[in-house]
Design brief:
2 copies of one chain form a homodimer. Chain A is mainly α. Chain A has helices at residues 3-14, 36-50, 60-69, 74-77, 86-104, 109-124, 128-146, 151-155, 160-167, 175-190, and strands at 21-26, 32-35.
């Protein structure tokens, strides 16, 4: 098989991410569940719009590509709700690693390696690029829930501390965004969209 | 209103692109119609995977951002089937320009100008970046239809010459991709997925 045919097979495989549905709701489409493909588009674009607020040097091109690829492993592993139990999250990580091997492995070897490294960097969330990418992945559901009278938070009785812990990649990285997020969380608690715990 | 609040309002407005449905079908999700948000994700990633085949100097970062933003105007203007009549396509262009003014205008002025310029460059399809971006937007439906026994081509009795004319941005720009596309079109005609006209 030629390298081009491998690349096209990979591109066609990506279609399956449009069938992976998340807990987030699309308010503007009758509150149907959001899929991971359109979510990835949204955060890649959001990163472009908001990257001026990051205080550390980042490469927005790398950040956007992390965000475009970060959920591809869900084609095999499925989506897991952000506030699941730790044991479930650990099992999910194993499934995602196997998925990365299979799906990125459809590509020619040099592309396979570079995309896998980018995904591993995103998951580890240690570099400024990966921390900002993680933050975008997590802030968007907060904005969507705020815009949707609590959205998926209400359905799952999510606590304030859970949302703070999930978004604190921004703390120190993008202070202006972090303070905005903290203000939004306070409003959510006042409105009883988040439990005050 | 602060610049940040304008940017967040823009990000939330983007949610509406998830409710704009195209003629393309998602085979892997029971052949439901594809929306323009997930389509934009798919082609931005496809551009990254295939840009090695472009023979002219391009800036893949610009190409990917063109693709992430190129359909936002459909929030107001709706999607128009690729093979519509010229008169309808002209009317659509006017609607899209008004949509660009309104939606990009939600952003702070400097971002508004730069995103609008990027969109205008995409639409004009004259620079290598824009030609490659246009090509990705058009090749993906071809790959999807080939993978789906003719898909939306069959439903609308699309002709071979229409598909060739629509994809010829690749001719001269990315010869290896262009020859692949021409081979696929021949197969589609043999299989009666495209009319031989």
């Amino acid at each position: 098989m030629t390298g081009l045919q491998q690349q096209i097979d990979f591109v066609l495989e990506l279609d399956r991410l449009k069938a992976v549905y998340r807990q987030a709701l699309v308010k503007e489409d009758n509150n149907r569940q959001e899929n991971s493909a359109e979510h990835s588009w949204h955060i890649a674009l959001m990163a472009q719009v908001l990257h001026q607020y990051v205080d550390e040097p980042i490469n927005i091109f790398r950040v956007q590509n992390m965000l475009l690829i970060h959920d591809i492993v869900e084609i095999d592993a499925g989506d897991m709700f952000a506030f699941s139990e730790q044991q479930e999250l650990d099992a999910q990580a194993d499934k995602e690693l196997a998925a990365a091997e299979r799906i990125f492995g459809l590509l020619p070897e040099s592309q396979n390696q570079s995309i896998k490294q980018l995904w591993i960097e995103f998951e580890a969330a240690q570099t400024p690029d990966a921390r900002f990418a993680k933050a975008m992945d997590r802030v968007l559901p907060l904005l969507q829930n705020m815009h949707n009278d609590g959205g998926s938070w209400l359905r799952y009785n999510v606590k304030k501390t859970q949302v703070i812990n999930r978004n604190n990649h921004l703390d120190g990285l993008a202070p202006r965004l972090w303070s905005y997020v903290c203000e939004q969380i306070d409003i959510a608690v006042e409105n009883r969209w988040l439990k005050n715990e």
